[in-house]
Amino acid sequence: MPWYVKAFCAAIAAYALSPIDLIPDFIPVLGYLDEVILLPPAILLAVRMVPADLMAEFRAEADRRSERPVSKIAAAVIIVLWIGAAGLLLWALWPQPSTG
Q: Angle at Cα 95 formed by Cα 89 and Cα 98, nearest 5°?
């Protein structure tokens, strides 16, 4: 990846994550409007800055990785863990009747 593409992508990420914006986020509607207007074209430009042969290689690798087997058991375990964590949190925060 060329250095200037990496630098541009880092600048996009820094702007997106920075608390300092052109229009402060605490202003209703307008606060997020600068991100909605500026970030999509910047991301599109970053994608177009990547050389075509390199982008073809990245897309081929993404296709190869998307064909990997999916573990439904692992997905079920993760879902059970999230449900258990939510249940534990509800149990811990649920108001207890006073005994006294």
A: 140
**For residue 64, is it within any domain?**
no
Residue given tokens 């600048």 in the structure block: 11
- Exposure class string for 39-61: b at 16+ Cβ within 10 A, else e: eeebeeebeeebeeeeeeeeeee
19 by DSSP, 3-state: which?
A: coil
Residue 21 near residue 44 (C-beta atoms within 8 A): no
Place of tokens 């064909």: 67
38: which residues sit within 8 A by CB, 6+ positions away? Answer: 15, 22
Domain that holds residue 36: 3-50
Asked if the structure places residue 96 within a domain, the reply is: no
89 domain residue, yes or no: no
Least confident of 6-10, 16-20, 71-75, 83-87: 16-20
